[in-house]
Every structure is written in structure tokens, then in C-alpha cells.
Amino acid sequence: MQVPKDLGSYTRVLKLASTPSWEEFSRVALIAGVGVILVGILGFLIFVGMNFVPGGA
């Protein structure tokens, strides 16, 4: 591992990074929220389905 070379590449990435606009941030937050809700619904459906299976949880 070459520390000076690695630090240089990290600083280059940080210089290229920029703060997202409000529109971009809200779109990413909305998509992430929908994903979390879908995973929660899927988990709930699996839980409910397992309660109907004999010998389930």
C-alpha cells in the first residue's frame, strides 16, 4: 500500500465531489424511501405467509 499515492487519489475524488442540488437530493431520498417501504412490505408479507404455514414461526 502506497500511502502518498492513495492520499492523492482520495483528495482528487473529494475535489471532484459536489453537493447535490435540492432536486437531486429529494429524488434520491424518495427512491430510497420507496425501497425501504417495499422491503418492509415484502418482509411483512413473508411473515404473514409463514403464520399460515403449519409448523411456521
Characterise this structure.
Its main location: membrane. It is a single-pass membrane protein. Belongs to the SecE/SEC61-gamma family. The chain crosses the membrane at residues 28-53. One of its GO terms (molecular function) is protein transmembrane transporter activity. This protein has 57 residues and is an all-alpha fold. It has a domain at 26-57. It contains two helices and no strands. It has helices spanning 3-16, 22-52. The longest helix is centred in the middle third of the chain and has 31 residues, at 22-52. It starts with a helix and ends in a 5-residue tail after the last helix.
Please supply descriptive tags for the structure shown above:
57 residues; mainly alpha; 2 helices; elongated; transport; cell membrane; Protein translocase subunit SecE; translocation; transmembrane helix
Please outline the helices and strands.
Layout: H1 3-16, H2 22-52
Average pLDDT figure? 87
Largest sheet: none
User: What would the principal axes of the Cα set say about the shape?
Assistant: elongated
Classification by helices and strands: mainly alpha
Strand content: under 5%
Helix residue percentage = over 70%
Distance between the termini: 49 Å
Topology as a string of helices (H) and strands (E): HH
- Please identify the oligomeric state: single chain
What is the strand tally?
0
Radius of gyration: 22 Å
In DSSP terms, counting alpha (H) and pi (I) runs of 4 or more, how many helices?
A: 2
Q: Low-confidence runs (pLDDT<50, min 5 residues)?
A: none
